[in-house]
Amino acid sequence: AMAPDKIDKLVWNRGVLKMVADSFAAHPSTEKTKGRRKDLTSILGLNSSSKYIPTMLEVTKEVLAEMKKLKDVNYLNHMNNLTVKILSNLLFGKDIHYLIEKKYTYQNHDGTSDELNLLDFFFKHCENLVAEYYNPITTLLPFVDKNNLFGLWKRNHVNDIQFKTRLTEIVEKSKDENSLWSQMKALNHYSSEDIFSDLIILLLGGTESTSHSLVSLFFYLAKHPDVKEKLVKELRDMGFHKNEELYHTKIHDCDYLNYVVKEVFRIDAPVTRGFYYVAKEDINI
Predict the structure, then answer these.
(1) What average pLDDT does the structure give for the chain?
(2) Which of 154, 230, 232, 272 sits at a 20 to 30 Å CA gap from 122?
(3) What percent of the chain has pLDDT over 70?
(4) Is the dihedral of CA 176, 177, 182, 183 positive or negative?
C-alpha cells in the first residue's frame, strides 16, 4: 500500500493548468490545501446534487431556444455553452450573466485582437493553452514556457491575466448568496485568489468533459432508436413530461436512465486519466 506521507500528486503547471496555478490541485498536499478541498466539496454537496436541477433546467431551456433558431447546429459548441453557463451559475452566481456578455479584448497570436464575451474568451483561451501544452518548445525549452517569453506563451499569459481580472471583477459584484463563491467567502478562511482558482478548476474540469458526454449520448441514442424509445418511455412513465418538480424526487429512481448514462461513459470516457502521483522520497521495498 502507498504511504500517504510518502507520495503526493505531481505539480505540473503547464498549458491549461496555468489557469489554476493557485488552486489546491496545483499545490503539494498541505493542511491548508486539504482544508480548502474539504470545504469546497462539502459546500458543493455532490451527494445532494439534485438541488442543482432547477438551474440546469432553466439554462437548458435557454440554450434549446437558441438552437431552435438556427438552421445548422454544432452540438458540441452548444453543449459547451450549456455546461459552462450552468457551472458559472452554480460557481459564481446566477446574477452575473449580463456582465459575462460584455465584450473584452482577446489578444491573438498573430498580433490581431478580437472582442469576445467572457464565455467565448474562456473557450478560446483554453484552446490556445492546449496548443501551448503540445508545442515542442514547451518541452524542449521549459524556461520559455515558465517565463512566457514570447509569441504563443506571452499572448496566453496576457490573456490569462485579462480573463482572471475581468471574471474576478464580475464575481465580486454578484449578490447570489447560494453560489459556491459566496459560501466559500463567507467562511473567512481563504483569500479571493485561492477561492477563484479552486472554482476555475471545477469550471475547467466540468465543461469539456460534460459537454463531450452529452454529445456522445445524443449520438448513441440516434444510432440506437430502440434504446431512445425505451428511455423516453421510462421518463414519461415517471411523469417528467408533466411536472418538472418530479426531477427532485424521482430522478434517482430512473434505472434505465442510469444504465444509459453509465454505458455512454464506458464506451466513450470523457476523461482518460487523472493526476500523476510521485514518491516524495526514495522508498526501500
Answers:
(1) 86
(2) 272
(3) 93
(4) negative
The answer to whether 36 and 24 have CB atoms below 8 angstroms apart is yes
Is residue 156 predicted with pLDDT exceeding 90?
A: yes
Q: What average pLDDT does this structure show over 223-236?
A: 94
**C-beta of residue 221 within 8 angstroms of C-beta of residue 227:** yes
The CB density around residue 221, as the number of other CB atoms within 10 Å, is 16
Is residue 123 within 8 A of residue 88, CB to CB? The reply is no
For residues 55 and 63, what is the distance between their CA atoms, to the nearest angstrom? 12
Overall size of the chain counted in residues = 285
Residues 14-28, buried b or exposed e (16+ Cβ, 10 A)? Answer: ebbbbbbebbbbbbe
Give the predicted TM-score (pTM) of the model: 0.82
